[in-house]
Design brief:
binds fe (ii) ion, alpha/beta, Urease, subunit C, domain 1, 4-stranded mixed beta sheet, TIM Barrel, 425 residues, 21% strand, 12 helices
Length: 425
């Protein structure tokens, strides 16, 4: 007798299996499980996947679009300036309320693990206080991992380093940084040595906003790779954005990518935000804000899609749907081969989970019983449709259900309803 069985679903690898759940764990994954269960979800013909994972987000700023006013230039720098004003006036309660609303959206979309950068610049650290509270409140259904992020620079802000350490002491678990925003290239490089040493001494992971610029000479990823291998941080360091790589000299990149691979660094491009932020100073041709995704993957470097922003000073849209993120990434990185499209789905599930070090993830016996049932037949169809999440199960509990997205039609001589799923032979 199980607590819950999800019957007849198609797993991302194309196999069909029932998934039996006891408590908060997957008890069995096999076709035709005959045992009884207290609750059964019929997923026949539907895709059953492990939950979506977002490895890069800013939950302290989310759902604040228009506060204190909109970003008129659409640039990263105006966004940083606007946020600098907002974080001084936003209360802990306001930030908690906005973040909890966002987490409701995430839960409804099957997004059940999020790495969020938390701005550690303001001396009051209300941002950190608020996000630690949110982390505690959503723990039953969302794994929220927090990164100490010195938005205004580790050194450029007078109390940047001190406040980052305070945030880590308060319980923030990952070390962040922003070398391209420090005053000089040399300060950027020094900040990386400092941050990686802090992480090594404390046994923490590192996730750096790295080279989020169109300047091809912004090469901080090189120093991040150097420090990661020097300090033995392989598998614990991520470089987020890495957009300058889109304009780097090809010969230099041919040296750089093996160094990133050797250092065991993961890459987290954020396609929704960077396709609108980057290239703002260009006339034409106008650059895409996308790092070299396929080229890094060919070198064995883990690459996962991140969302970064939803309705905040940097990005005016967003839905907490990692399929939107992967859909944009697929387009901008031109990942249209069937294998590449399927990989885009894996990137927002398994790859992202591995990058943030999520434990007990996946659809196998003994794993955490978290999964999502989608109104699609395959991962690629899920990307095409961004369909309804028919059921979301978090840590053994059904936490959300949605209706299928069929439309009723009134057309002469045509069937009465339309399904957008592809016809099957
Ligand atoms: Fe970010």
């Amino acid at each position: 007798m199980f607590d819950l069985i999800v019957r007849g679903g198609t797993l991302p690898d194309g196999t069909q299996a029932d998934i039996a759940i006891s408590g908060d764990r997957i008890a069995a994954v096999a076709p035709g499980i005959t045992a009884e269960a207290a609750e059964v979800i019929d997923a026949t013909g539907d895709l059953v996947a492990p939950p979506f994972v977002d490895p890069h987000f800013h939950m302290d700023a989310t759902l604040s679009y228009g506060l204190p006013r909109v970003n008129a230039s659409g640039t990263l720098l105006e966004g940083i300036a606007l946020w600098g004003e907002l974080r001084q006036i936003a209360t802990v309660d306001e930030m908690v309320a906005r973040a909890l609303t966002y987490c409701d959206w995430a839960a409804s979309m099957g997004l059940l693990a999020i790495r969020s950068h938390v701005d550690t610049t303001p001396d009051h650290l209300n941002t950190v206080t608020a996000m630690l509270e949110v982390q505690k409140q959503v723990k039953p259904y969302i794994d929220l991992q927090l990164v100490a992020f010195p938005q205004d620079g580790l050194y450029r802000s007078a109390t940047g380093r001190e406040n980052l350490i305070r945030a880590l002491d308060m319980g923030v678990e990952v070390v962040g940084g922003i070398p391209h925003f420090e005053r000089t290239m040399a300060d950027g490089a020094a900040s990386l040595s400092d941050l990686c040493r802090i992480a090594a001494d404390r046994g923490l992971m590192v996730d750096i906003h790295c080279d989020e610029t169109d300047d091809p000479l912004s090469r901080h990823i090189e120093m991040l790779a150097f420090e990661a291998q020097r300090l033995g941080l392989q598998g614990r360091v991520a470089g987020s954005h890495l957009t300058s790589m889109h304009s780097m000299d090809n010969y230099y990149v041919s040296k750089l990518l093996p160094l990133i691979a050797e250092a065991g660094i993961s890459a987290i491009p954020n396609p929704l935000i960077n396709i609108v932020l980057q290239g703002r100073h260009d006339t034409f041709p106008k650059r895409r804000g996308m790092t070299r995704v396929k080229e890094m993957q060919a070198m064995g470097i883990p690459v996962g899609w991140g969302q970064d922003c939803v309705l905040d000073p940097w990005y005016s849209l967003g839905t907490a749907d990692m399929l939107d993120v992967a859909f944009m990434g697929l387009h901008v990185a031109q990942m249209t081969h069937p294998d590449e499209m399927a990989r885009c789905f894996t990137m927002v599930t398994e790859t992202n989970a591995a990058i943030i070090g999520l434990q007990d993830y996946g659809l196998h016996k003994g794993a955490m019983a978290s999964l999502v049932v989608l109104d699609a037949a395959t991962p690629t169809e899920a990307l095409r449709l961004r369909p309804a999440r028919l059921a979301v199960i978090a840590k053994g509990k059904v936490i959300a259900r949605s209706a299928r997205g069929d439309a009723a039609l009134s057309l002469p001589g045509r069937p009465g309803s339309v399904r957008r799923r592809a016809p099957r032979g």
